[in-house]
Amino acid sequence: MMVLVTYDVSFEDGNGAQRLRRLAKICLDYGTRVQYSVFECDIDYQHWPLFKAKLLETMDPAVDSIRFYKLGKHWRDKVAHHGAKPALDIFQDTLLL
Amino acid sequence: MKQLQNCLYITKDGAYLHKQRETLLVEQRIEGKKHKLLQVPIHSIGAIFCFGNVLVSPQVMGFCGERGTGLAFFDQFGRFQARVVGQQHGNVLLRRAQYQFSDEQQLTFVKGLVGAKLQSSRAVLQRHLRNHGAVTEVKQASARLKQIIESLPVQRSIDSVRGYEGEGAKHYFSVFGQLITNPKFEFNGRNRRPPKDPINAMLSFLYAIWGKELSGALQGVGLDPQVGWLHTERPGRDSLAQDLLEEFRAYVIDRLVLTLVNRKQVKPKDFITDVSGAVSMSDEARKTVLQAYQSRKLETINHPFLDEQVEIGLLPHLQAMLLSRHIRGDLASYPPFCMR
């Protein structure tokens, strides 16, 4: 399933930058970074609870927020990119370097 | 059902692959500075193909071995060099059954394979006849292939089937050049080691890659890719993978090469001929070819036996699974892949 993960981290207390970094790393394990705090994660149902738990553990619910958008099977029809730095579709594009 | 995962092809000189947490990180050092080329989650990658001078960290190799992710190395000319093999998967009883395949089972299997191969070769010729009108030689070759296919069921030995296979292939490749409508390319029969023209270079390259995918798929279901029946056993040769390759050659690879040439996606200047007459692809050409190959793998077709929509890239895994079912005795015969 394709999940769009976005988050907002508060920098007011001292650990904001650390939490931000950790969240990004967890998201990178499961998906691609499409914008700074936006990740497209294609994840199967067995890994999903773990992934979610990791993120929720890392954030500070008092000041940060995370949003999950489940895009479903036909997610490709729902996504359009405009402008610079198009994200690559790791399941369809030829990964050729 | 297995999901079709993407393959990663690395042709950048000096690229370095390593594992960072659960992601695969590809870096290149330019003038002492590291440049990040790509970072992807490892679970989205089904196989990694490295060409030329590519460095892979032991952690990545270990991971590939453990997870059954394909990892193969080719030299800068696209010739196969090595493959990482993890722990032996699957059931030892299945492998033993494979080694004890009876003569009769072998013969039936080989007949099926050769039949499917010639049938799909013929389909390529027929397709050309439909699209471009009748050409006498092509028509003759197609008719001859039909005769050979019809004579297969009564054959009594594997050797005679091999003989017919060779004859069929000869007829097929003798007219293959006529299917090329782009006047800038010529094809005068199949040759390899080394390939002597661009068409042969592309065919050899793609057969090699598809062959490696088949080896990986066979190992994935627990079969021994080295024990085959159409191809005799030879040290270092994945005979069974080569056997299964037969049923795909025309449908997957030959048609792809024809498309690339006839649609002028590759040009004669994309190929390099060295002094010995060996022809290889330039980096540009290899990119074009791999991109076309990747999109071919993503096309969905209706599997003739399973009657299910599947991606072409999954076919090696499906056929390996069907073969293992046959060897295990769950399927009365192996249904070779054959598109009408």
From TrEMBL, chain A:
One GO term of the biological process aspect: maintenance of CRISPR repeat elements
InterPro entries xrefs: CRISPR_associated_Cas2, Virulence_VapD/CRISPR_Cas2
Cofactor: Mg(2+)
Residues annotated to bind Mg(2+): D8
Classification via Pfam families: CRISPR_Cas2
E.C. no: 3.1.-.-
Protein's UniProt keywords contain Metal-binding: yes
Keyword annotations: Antiviral defense, Endonuclease, Hydrolase, Magnesium, Metal-binding, Nuclease
MF annotations from Gene Ontology: hydrolase activity; metal ion binding; RNA endonuclease activity
Family classification: Belongs to the CRISPR-associated endoribonuclease Cas2 protein family.
Role played: CRISPR (clustered regularly interspaced short palindromic repeat), is an adaptive immune system that provides protection against mobile genetic elements (viruses, transposable elements and conjugative plasmids). CRISPR clusters contain sequences complementary to antecedent mobile elements and target invading nucleic acids. CRISPR clusters are transcribed and processed into CRISPR RNA (crRNA). Functions as a ssRNA-specific endoribonuclease. Involved in the integration of spacer DNA into the CRISPR cassette.
Subunit structure: Homodimer, forms a heterotetramer with a Cas1 homodimer.
UniProt cross-references to NCBIfam families, sorted A to Z: cas2
HAMAP family listed in its UniProt record: Cas2 (MF_01471)
Protein name: CRISPR-associated endoribonuclease Cas2
Upper classification of the organism: Bacteria, Pseudomonadati, Pseudomonadota, Gammaproteobacteria, Alteromonadales
From TrEMBL, chain B:
Main enzyme class: hydrolase
Keyword entries, A-Z: Antiviral defense, DNA-binding, Endonuclease, Hydrolase, Magnesium, Manganese, Metal-binding, Nuclease
Residues noted as binding Mn(2+) in the record, renumbered to the chain: E165, H231, E246
Example GO biological process: defense response to virus
Enzyme Commission numbers on file: 3.1.-.-
Molecular function GO labels: DNA binding; DNA endonuclease activity; hydrolase activity; metal ion binding
Ranges in coiled-coil conformation: none
Cofactor(s) for this UniProt protein: Mg(2+); Mn(2+)
Function: CRISPR (clustered regularly interspaced short palindromic repeat), is an adaptive immune system that provides protection against mobile genetic elements (viruses, transposable elements and conjugative plasmids). CRISPR clusters contain spacers, sequences complementary to antecedent mobile elements, and target invading nucleic acids. CRISPR clusters are transcribed and processed into CRISPR RNA (crRNA). Acts as a dsDNA endonuclease. Involved in the integration of spacer DNA into the CRISPR cassette.
Oligomeric form and interacting partners: Homodimer, forms a heterotetramer with a Cas2 homodimer.
Protein family: Belongs to the CRISPR-associated endonuclease Cas1 family.
Protein name as it appears in the record: CRISPR-associated endonuclease Cas1
Organism encoding this protein: Ferrimonas lipolytica
Lineage of the species this protein comes from: Bacteria, Pseudomonadati, Pseudomonadota, Gammaproteobacteria, Alteromonadales
